[in-house]
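Cross-check.
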Amino acid sequence: MQGLEELPTTVSDATVDTPETAFTKDEDQVWDAAPECSICFTSYDNTFKTPKVLQCNHMFCLECLSRFVAVSPEQNSTQIVCPLCRQPTSVPENGPPALTTSQEVLGQLPSHQQQEEIVWLDGERLCYSNPQSPNGVCIDIGGSKQQNENRQEEIENNSNRLGNCTRLIKTWQRLLIFLLVLVILLAIVIWPIQCIFKQGTISGCFKNQDEHLTTLTTVSAITKR
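Predicted model, tokenized:
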């Protein structure tokens, strides 16, 4: 009959999705569609990586914004300057955890992460309550980590400078010893040649040397008397 689409008549003509293939495709789609923070390139979640929206509508994770507030001397930590458009956003009284959460992004997360957890600031730490940990789970978001890294880097740089100076001193010491040995060798080689030009023979050099020693011995004996 005309107007009907011809169906594949063999198994090879049709595309059959097995359960394993369908699961792999769904998994790949979820992985590719997983939103992530444009600062740390980490996928969002419902705790430290909660998607927070600034007044400019740019979105970043809670941890990155909290670190910005903790280490930024600008505005006395009362504003967050968007790293993309530089538009400031006022920090709520309770800190970055009180910023607006993107419910749209939370809805794209796995089902067990679609409910936002309560996260709060504890000094320079970001914490949330975890049933498996009675004291909660906290991460350091203050400047202490960066300061420790800078201090460690400074110590390593000073150690490298000291090592370079030590190696330079040893190199100069070896060079001076080499020059001293070279001068001694040149003196040993040049003195007989110079004496031969003056005396005509090598024996005359040693004869003059013996006479010089005899004279010194006689003068010394007379002086003692």
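DSSP finds five helices and eight strands in the chain. Confidence is low (pLDDT under 50) at residues 1-31. Passed to J.P. for a second look.
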